[in-house]
């Protein structure tokens, strides 16, 4: 059945997922991690859907999350070991302990002595050794300890001696999203590895345990060549891919698994504009490609079958209006798209755009004549 | 009861609404519209909550919406006359007619002959004269007809002769959000008025009806001085206000009714950074103040009582991490905010930030010792 036939009756704007593309993305990353000899602990903040997650983690039972809501939903769906990769706070410990009491091996993140102290204290009080990974800074982008610093050992000891479970170290090279070349991405991947391996060695030399040595991000996982000493990687956006990843060379535009289905609502023909019913409420305000050599506006505009139309992008967005036009400098004119024409728009950032919707309308990989619907969740 | 006591047990990040501020914002706009002699048809895309809408439209039964979901929810809550202000498409007509059949006077928007033809045809087929407002372009910002153009009369006649209900004209000066001065805002307001009054006169001179002459936007409604010939205004963001409105001089920072409650999760002290558990998933990616003289980053950081802390703003955001620091050029150092400290962050754009949450935790205007919870809805 053609995409046009499958999608024609949907209310727009809505989110379409091409399952065959997602499966290929997952298989590619699975194979890559196997080659590099590390475990894949996929970050589920991108898909935020139990149905999608079942495919992402079908070869394992470990995952990464960015909210306690994600931890609770995925634990309930059967994921056995979950790393909550945002710095732990005292007010989140009751939910952490409650979820651990259900049998989920939930692991927390921290990078300070004050956090190590309250995690250790909570472990003693609850009689439950809360596992923790120390965050290591590999690129000055956000959080984390200096890899070779004495603080790594000091904090590791507070946890280990205080009754918590020092599980290891992790880093995330968030700066890799702004890398300008494949060589720069390889450098970010090397820095991630060097940072966590250095920190792991400091812990081990001090007689402390460090079973987990974890790196993360789709760009670094895609370009790493040597992960010696690393035990696991935590990419997430590779499952769906997006224009930022395509701009980095991580994937092609044809590897983007999600798009926003929209309907033409009007024109300003003398300006070459076509207006659609997907604005920033549907696409999100993310303009991640604005900093890349090829600025894709609010998204690349495709026909209903998912094929990009010439140089057409969403050049502007209001809340529920998108302005579609050839990109600046394009040599092809805008095609005439009558009111009512359905289009599909590829997003800058899969995590941000997907979050604007309550679920995926899934074009199934088995060529089924029906769409599936996979609910998403949100909140904290 | 202090805000600190009221809010201390909430899970962060979450959305806090100060009802007293919202009520004052509503009362101010109600009074202003009365003085100018126009009906207020508030845009409910900002609050997206039946509880909040009850206060916004308590003096009337007419509203504006940006999605059919909003129309359906607010109609079910008792709003009798709703203007759906996004260009109509054929695939939306079944829902339009179904909602009208429930007794709601739902009005559609259009700006082309092709739309007028299918709306007229649907009216004849259904035996229901669908009311429509013609969109008029007052600032070249998005959609709409040239005010004095023959097309206004042509399209009005297709509707009126074809069996639809030509209800009038409307415009929205979206460009006013980028105005650089109060004088510029007054000019936008004058242009809105001139555009719709000109178009209304063209219709009337041609013997066509035009009972509704509608302008819209919080900035123009706040600075208009003369709305002669206009019958109604459709502002929305004034209900909650935000940093973009404060930057335009529409309100003060103290008039912003919503904030995101967040918890400190860590530090990079040598950089002066405090990290919080509200990233762009909570704040949205909206950076509306980036184009204003005072760039507020991803938001102004307040203590738990809602008072801004020195020059502290959210200078960066990842999905679930916000980086808080003094704004560039600030002369005051960042205060020490231990892990676990709760903060409130004022948003760039109320519509975008509020949309990231499922409801408002409401500090009630009556000084109640309890928080109320007002659910929001989303989707299309």
Note down, in words, how this protein is organized.
The structure is a homodimer of 380-residue chains. The first copy, chain A, has 380 residues and is α/β, with parallel strands linked by helices. Helices cover 32% and strands 23% of the residues of chain A. The first copy, chain A, has 12 helices and 17 strands. In chain A, the strands form 2 sheets. Chain A has an 8-stranded parallel sheet with strand order 2-9-8-7-6-5-4-3. Chain A has a 6-stranded antiparallel β-barrel with strand order 10-11-14-13-12-15. In chain A, helix 9 (218-223) links the parallel strand 8 and strand 9 (232-233). In chain A, helix 6 (113-126) packs parallel to helix 7 (150-162). The model of chain A has no long low-confidence stretch (mean pLDDT 96).
Describe the global form of chain A. elongated
User: Oligomerization state of this entry?
Assistant: homodimer
Order of helices and strands of chain A: HEHEHEHEHEHEHEHEHEHEEHEEEEHEE
What share of residues are in beta strands of chain A? Answer: 15-25%
Average pLDDT of chain A: 96
Main sheet attributes: strand count, strand direction, barrel closure of chain A: 8 strands, parallel
Helix share bin of chain A: 25-40%
Distance between the termini of chain A: 38 Å
Question: Biggest interface and its residues per chain?
Answer: A-B, 58 and 58 residues
Low-confidence stretches of chain A are none
**Number of helices, counting only DSSP H or I runs of 4 residues or more of chain A:** 12
Q: Please provide the count of β strands of chain A.
A: 17
């Amino acid at each position: 059945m053609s995409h046009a036939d499958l999608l024609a009756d949907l209310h727009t704007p809505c989110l379409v997922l091409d399952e065959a593309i997602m499966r290929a993305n997952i298989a590619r990353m699975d194979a890559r991690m196997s080659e590099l000899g590390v475990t894949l602990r996929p970050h589920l903040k991108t898909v935020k859907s139990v149905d999608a997650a079942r495919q992402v983690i079908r070869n394992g039972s470990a995952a990464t999350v960015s909210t306690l809501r994600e931890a609770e939903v995925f634990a309930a769906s059967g994921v056995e070991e979950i790393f909550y990769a945002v710095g732990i706070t005292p007010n989140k410990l009751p939910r952490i302990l409650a979820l651990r009491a259900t049998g989920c091996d939930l692991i927390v993140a921290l990078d300070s002595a004050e956090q190590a102290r309250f995690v250790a204290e909570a472990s003693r009080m609850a009689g439950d050794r809360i596992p923790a990974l120390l965050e290591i800074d590999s690129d000055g982008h956000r959080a984390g300890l200096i890899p070779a610093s004495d603080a790594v050992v000091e904090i590791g000891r507070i946890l280990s001696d205080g009754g918590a479970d020092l599980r290891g170290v992790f880093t995330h090279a968030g700066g890799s999203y702004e890398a300008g070349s494949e060589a720069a991405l390889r450098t970010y991947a090397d820095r991630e590895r060097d940072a966590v391996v250095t920190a792991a060695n400091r812990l081990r030399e001090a007689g402390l345990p460090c079973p987990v040595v974890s790196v993360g991000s789709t760009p670094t996982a895609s370009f790493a060549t040597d992960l010696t000493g690393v035990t696991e990687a935590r990419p997430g956006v590779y499952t769906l891919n997006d224009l930022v990843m395509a701009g980095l060379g991580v994937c092609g535009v044809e590897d983007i698994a999600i798009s926003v289905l929209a309907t033409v609502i009007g024109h300003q023909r003398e300006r070459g504009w076509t207006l659609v019913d997907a604005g920033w409420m549907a696409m999100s305000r993310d303009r991640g490609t604005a900093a890349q050599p090829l600025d894709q506006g609010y998204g690349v505009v495709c026909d209903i079958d998912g094929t990009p139309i010439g140089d057409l992008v969403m050049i502007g967005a209001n809340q529920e209006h998108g302005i579609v036009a050839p990109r600046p400098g394009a040599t092809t004119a805008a095609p005439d798209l009558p009111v009512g024409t359905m289009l599909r728009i590829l997003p800058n950032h899969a995590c941000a755009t997907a979050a604007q919707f309550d679920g995926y309308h899934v074009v199934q990989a088995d060529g089924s004549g029906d769409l599936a619907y996979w609910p998403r969740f949100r909140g904290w």
